[in-house]
């Protein structure tokens, strides 16, 4: 697990500037997650400034959680520019499967540019694959562990990108290998936007590490931070606060001790 | 007060999906209040996805706190669809009385669809009734206890809905009976969006209980959580954190012990 | 430093209503900072209600952190109306220098109305002065202490307003005198929107004190609150919570004991 610690070290050293087009619910919390970890967030969505901002950014995160007709063109433009500039791009298809607009928007973003990493829950990724995934709101999905691994692998091949399917166990695949990440805990489901926070910090790792390892590193580190936070605080308000504390405190020693990451057979 | 505990039990068992069109200031905090309590929040406002989202939602919450010309049509469309689909709908007329735009928008939403519960402070509800209520910003109002009960009753009859007028004592009426809720404390006025949080969780209760009792349950439970939070934390930052903790921790025993709810003469 | 304590006393007594047009990332946190301090926040941006809202407001804060083509006209209209109504106006040119859109928007706002106080970091204010300031995202800048004082003074003369250049040491000038504020600490850089919070509470002070002293008071008080918060909590999540606690708790005694404010030679 040393490579995960090394990835974190690089984030803290280089402080990548992560440009986010994300949803209104989590703008504050994802910025704080990035800052606590040691990266540098910026939030900009005006079409007239996207190119300027992406030129100085190290990566792009697009999250469709509160999309609308004004924001979708910004997302599309940002993904195109980032592709041209070869900036790593992470997509969070929040609520895909819940509404057609979300499913179609996410699919279009996958088509028009180079998405480096796609992170969603089981229902969202399944919906994108045209399966019968039914997203219940945006915070859960019918997770089936035996199918999650397969889903990550299939989606990675289909969309030609790294895919992270998150749930009780997270599966990450680049279409060839598959990693399973066992870190995290259930309290994450009691705080809004924790999935979006993982996506945001995935953007930081994508700026300093190759995509497959970047996604795994983000998930393991976020999961460990959540475990430590829950040891200190058993209720959601306090847990949420401690989560930032541990994104700041997590270090090589803790990663080596706690990371539960395994390469599994595809 | 057993029925309040039963209502909470139903929220936790059924985990109603509450669709919110709310203001930018409180999107994160109202989602967290719903999650802490045990409900499931979703925030969507794009007109093209409202019908899809409302079909899977159990109730709708509309809060006009940062309304504008792009969001008002979404609010209107959502209220109409929810009415057609017979989904309980809660309206928070934030800042009615402070500007004409807010007063008129709230009144239009009351006209075009079936609002199940209207929750506002004294000044907001008074403004909607055409009285001389002058809302000072959005966080207070000239509360007059002897008039608050009457206001709830009159507004409920006028708008043919359940009305909750919140303040030091909350009054809730369906136009026939009136309940007074004495829970809560002053620290709630030092954290932004606590009124919006009550409105949001009212949406959760409206999905599992009849309107009058739903509104009373939400107010009593939120008030008790605030009292417990304040016993643990006397300053606003820490109090805010503990508020989520207690929305999660509150249980039947605490409700029976603490709820101060009385049916009063109309 | 007694005048700083007096300014805070006036904020708490008069509870100025501060109208904010700010960015999505910090709407919640700036409202909470104002409430914790004892002021009264309101957030409204619809062009159709700006005049109504500004008539009852005591000051205006404009922050361009997530500007776009829909919000810029609101910012412009608000600044114009506030000027006509002679309401003190504080401008935070978030990210000026990072993109042309931000630099140009901030400059236009400075032209079309009376900005009472301009608060930004070194890179932002330098960019507005047409220097080679390069803003890295929105949370930092190439701060050079020996130049910061001069920058505040020059910008104050150029824009004919009070300018606060914040950094490890903050410099505030009205074009004649210069104050240096040494309060604050590095943990502020690990929580998003702390600069925006200072701007917001500057709006509260601007409603009750003349501009130069208002800006200095806000910076000193916020800095002291941050110092106290950091004594109680060494990590960013917990620190953030305690920051609100100390904005609420700070009093005359603490200000007298801790304020490090000096009038320096221009």
Automatic annotation (TrEMBL), chains A, B, C:
Its cofactor is Mg(2+). SUPFAM superfamilies: Ribokinase-like. Keywords: ATP-binding, Kinase, Magnesium, Metal-binding, Nucleotide-binding, Thiamine biosynthesis, Transferase. Substrate binds at residues 43, 193. Catalyzes the phosphorylation of the hydroxyl group of 4-methyl-5-beta-hydroxyethylthiazole (THZ). ATP binds at residues 119, 166. This is Hydroxyethylthiazole kinase. One of its GO terms (molecular function) is hydroxyethylthiazole kinase activity. The keyword Nucleotide-binding applies. The keyword Zinc does not apply. The lineage of its organism: Archaea, Methanobacteriati, Methanobacteriota, Thermococci, Thermococcales. It comes from the Archaea. Pathway: Cofactor biosynthesis; thiamine diphosphate biosynthesis; 4-methyl-5-(2-phosphoethyl)-thiazole from 5-(2-hydroxyethyl)-4-methylthiazole: step 1/1.
């Amino acid at each position: 697990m040393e490579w995960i610690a090394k990835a974190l070290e690089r984030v803290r050293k280089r402080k990548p500037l992560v440009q986010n087009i994300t949803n209104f619910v989590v703008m504050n919390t994802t910025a704080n997650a990035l800052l606590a970890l040691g990266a540098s967030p910026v939030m900009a969505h005006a079409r007239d400034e996207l190119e300027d901002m992406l030129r100085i950014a190290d990566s792009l995160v697009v999250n469709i959680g509160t999309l609308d007709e004004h924001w979708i063109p910004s997302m599309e433009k940002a993904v195109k520019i980032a592709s041209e500039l070869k900036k790593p791009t992470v997509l969070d298809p929040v609520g895909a499967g819940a509404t057609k607009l979300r499913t179609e928007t996410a699919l279009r973003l996958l088509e028009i540019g180079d998405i480096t990493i796609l992170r969603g829950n089981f229902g969202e990724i399944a919906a994108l694959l045209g399966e019968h995934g039914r997203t219940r709101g945006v915070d859960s999905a019918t997770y089936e562990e035996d199918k999650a691994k397969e889903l990550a692998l299939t989606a990675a091949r289909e969309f030609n990108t790294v895919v992270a399917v998150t749930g009780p166990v997270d599966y990450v695949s680049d279409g060839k290998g598959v990693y399973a990440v066992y870190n995290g805990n259930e309290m994450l489901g009691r705080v809004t936007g924790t999935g979006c926070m993982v996506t945001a910090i995935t953007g930081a790792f994508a700026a300093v590490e190759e995509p497959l390892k970047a996604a795994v590193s983000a998930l393991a580190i976020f999961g460990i931070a959540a475990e430590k936070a829950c040891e200190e605080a058993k209720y959601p308000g306090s847990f949420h606060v401690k989560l930032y504390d541990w994104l700041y405190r997590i270090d090589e020693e803790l990663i080596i001790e706690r990371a539960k990451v395994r390469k599994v057979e595809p």
